[in-house]
Amino acid sequence: MKNRIQSAVNDVFDKMIEIRRHIHMFPELSGQEEKTSEYIAAILKDWGVGFTQNIAGYGIVAQIEGVNADAACGALRADTDALPIQEMNDVPYKSKIPGVMHACGHDAHTAALLGTIYVLNSVKDSFNGRLKFFFQPSEEKFPGGAKLMIEEGVLENPDVQFVLGAHVLPTLEAGKVGVKSGMYMASTDEIYLTVKGKGGHAATPELLVDPVLIAVEVLSSLQQVISRKNNPAIPSVLSFGRFLADGRTNIIPDEVKLEGTIRTFSEEWRKDAHAHIERIATGIATSMGGECKVNIAHGYPFLVNNEELTEVFRNTGKEFLGKDFVDLPLRMTAEDFAYYSQKVPSVFYRFGVSNPEKGITSNLHSQTFDIDEEALKTAASIMSMAAIQFLDHFSENK
Fold first, then answer.
1. Which CATH number goes with the domain that contains 279?
2. CA dihedral 224, 228, 234, 235 (to 10 degrees)
3. Does residue 273 contact residue 230 with C-beta atoms inside 8 Å?
4. Tens-digit pLDDT profile for residues 72-81
5. What per-residue string of b and e applies to 63-87 under the rule 16 or more CB within 10 Å gives b?
């Protein structure tokens, strides 16, 4: 099976590069992936793979049946949306859409999943069960395409027993793969604070209720949510990236806006932290004569890799890659793949895409992000073999 998979990956490699570059040149933002969806559908149709379109917007679910299709059922997932970033790379496949770029590798995820479909379709006479393939829109934007696709029933009819997903990792070199068992990625919530006071001339502060000063006190006091309220055993982060006080050197505005994020690995603490944030922010503002409106947008849950399946995946990865298969640390970043992991046993792994010798080292969400396309071979090989191993695992334990 390993030899058949590697042979099929070699056969489809040039096509994966073509797919990745086309999607990279024509990126679409979350909820707008219409042409990307049509492009994916055309390839699936050409390969004779059955699929359903327009799920949760522009999502697609394809399906392949192996021998004894009812033995087990799993799903493989890739996300398809891009980011509002202006690309600065000087490459032939540079984005042709101003201000939009695949800076998070979703073009590579989609190309790798299509390559995996090609591979698995070519060996479907050699595995038991059936596989669904989720081409999911809107990973980058709340409430997340995963949540919406689940609500539209993609894990049902037939019931999915596992979901496998992947993401590029620029801190790993191309050819390497990594995974972490158990808790892996944090929940994420967006925090929006509006501090209101009474603005006016900066030279007469005694006549004002200064929202800038109130906002500074709120920002400083909120740091105790993590440093004093949180159990140190629960990794958590509270950060603010936007402080908007639109006054002038001699003008104090009427209001100030703060925007941030809180991330953690406990649903109970997550709820408590929200309450602490609201109490501290409103209390500080009131005590200083102003007010603070708190809006916390509930985002993605934490992502947990099923320990039993992760061990199966780890064994598969070591068989394929040897020392190039690595264990990963906990991450405070977030992913809407977490919604799948909260519903069924799941594994979310990373494949390396950097190549210092080629100058490919930029981080995710940057204007110069790129990948060494050799990584697509690794991604499709590991995903294909792991999918078959997972099907065998559930068939044997049925």
1. 3.30.70.360
2. 40
3. yes
4. 999 999 999 9
5. bbebeebebbbbbbbbbbbbbebeb
Cβ contacts of residue 37 below 8 Å, gap of 6+?
53, 54, 58, 59, 60, 80, 135, 137
Domain that includes residue 286, residue range = 189-297
The answer for residues whose C-beta is within 8 angstroms of residue 283's C-beta and 6 or more apart is: none
User: Annotated active-site positions, please?
Assistant: 81, 139
Contacts of 19 (CB under 8 A, 6+ apart): 43, 110, 111, 114, 115
Side chain identity, residue 35: K
Tokens of 176: 């390497």
**Do 319 and 268 fall within a single domain?**
no
Distance CA 149, CA 160 (A): 13
* Rounded distance between C-alpha atoms, residue 301 and residue 265, angstroms: 8
Number of domains in the chain: 2
| Same domain assignment for residues 272 and 149 | no
Place 397 in a pLDDT band, splitting at 50, 70 and 90. confident
CA dihedral 270, 273, 278, 281 (to 10 degrees): -140
- Residue range 3-28, pLDDT digits in tens: 999 999 999 999 999 999 999 999 99
- The answer to whether residues 337 and 287 belong to one domain is no
